[in-house]
What we know:
The protein is 31% helix and 27% strand. By secondary structure, it is α+β, with helices and mostly antiparallel strands. It folds into 3 domains: 2-324, Zn peptidases (Aminopeptidase, 3-Layer(aba) Sandwich); 331-370, no CATH class; 377-497, no CATH class. It has an 8-stranded mixed sheet, with helices on both faces. Strands 16, 17, 18, 19, 20 and 21 form a 6-stranded antiparallel sheet that branches. Strands 6-12-13 form a 3-stranded antiparallel sheet. The N and C termini lie far apart (102 Å). Bound molecules: zinc ion.
Amino acid sequence: MKKLLLFIFIMTNIAAVAQPVKTPAEDNGYSKPSSYREIVQFIEDIDKFSELVSTEVIGRSVEGRNIYALKFSKSGIRPTQTKIKILIQAQQHGNEQSGKEGALLLAKELIKPQYSYLFDKIDLVLVPQVNPDGSELNVRRNSNKADLNRNHLIMTEPEVIALHALFDKYLFEVTMDVHEYYPYSEDWIKAGYRKNSDVLIGFNTNPQISASLRDYQKRLYMPFWSNYMSARGVSYGMYSPGGPTEDIYVRYSTFDINDGRQSYGIQNTLSFIQEGMNGEDSYVDNLLHRAYSQYNGMLALLEFVYGNCDEIKSIVESERRLLISPAANEKVALQMVHTSDGTTLKLPVYSYFSKSDSVIQIKNFRPVVKPTISTLKPLGYLIPKSDSVLMKWVSRVGFKTTKLNNTESYHLEQISLTAIDSIDFEGDIIPTPKISTNEAKGISVAEQYLFIPTAQLKGNMLVIALEPQSELGLGTYSQFGYLMKPQTIYPVIRVFEKKIKYSKNR
Length: 506
Ligand SMILES: [Zn+2]
């Protein structure tokens, strides 16, 4: 009898730590997406079952739900080590359910022995659900009605602050932000088509992000991804918003750095965005297919990084080294345009005319981002300590600050906003000032200002945020609109090395 009881005890214990074989959505036959409560249970089960996985709560949503990170590592993840570190995050937008479902599938698959080899070279952190509040209601925004994927520069939302705290802690070399695109808009249907790829991939496009990394994505990832996805029967393409009529040009996503992809990219990270195709009804329509397409895209990234681990790590390290060394005559692009390179785009579509897959030629295709206004990168900026809005932003973003000693050896440049104009930025009208500059005199640097050097990982982000003429800058957000008053002195001061004038007879 005792023996039997012991046997039953052992059996139930084994059952308690059995491998989670199904994600919550799989369990309900994809009749609805996985709920927050089910995800919590699923993550706990995986954590318990697998030696490979440990769980971290990286923050809480506005309504207090946990934001979970699943860490896959054989040795524990540290900022500097020989393994390459990857961050995959999904569902910043709560009505994009398939990213989350794909991420849960990925978690379930990766703990199987057949994927163990990946973690000889890779440490992975997977955040399957960034926006649990939005997800529960199947709405895009979080509970503060903020679009999280436009919040990575001003960082007012707890979900985004949590992501960047995670990034800063491990300094991932590779990141992927997983979304969905909606191809069923009225104007496209009216034109007789819809975009028709299961998954789209987007690269870094801001010209301030390392050219080597941008080139690497195009030259090496694109062919790998094409082969990988077609071998698995997943239709794929480049993420290219715009159209359908020729007056709305088609481009490779935005060059703004306020989204998941580019806010990591601007710190010289090999950073991607993946866009699965939304359902006509975003909630459950075709959810199984959508989840598997996203899953395949994520697995493609892991396989690619595994195969090119040393090379990627070495490019990222050397490009980051450039960011943390003081700038020498380096320019930062503040305003840019999308331009043509003479090529047309062959866009895979579904045709409502022929009721079949088709391809259309886009002539008004502008894949190149060209700077129109740039500025010389200063050594840093002085922020007035009296400006509590800016001071709080500096601490939220986590910029490194230092003391500026011997201020007489620097040229402190004050900026006057002489007038405020406006420009069109990717369809939005935003303010842009005319400026003049002069030497800042009679200020008490140590008492009144905080110095933020540009020689840091977030240095380019700093310039883009603070320069008044930056079309991606803080001044274009309503919270910081007070910075953009005409005929005022801009509160932030540029710091340059003093130019040493040599006499001719020297
Ligand atoms: Zn999205």
